[in-house]
Amino acid sequence: MECRLYQPQDREAYIALMKRVFPDDPPWKDPALSLDLKVAFQPELMFVAMQGAQMLGTVMAGYDGHRGWIYSVATDPAQRGRGIASRLLEMAEAKLASLGCVKINLQVREGNEAVVAVYEKNGYQVEPRISMGKILHKPDD
Question: Per the database record, which ranges form the N-acetyltransferase domain (predicted)?
Answer without folding.
Answer: 1-141
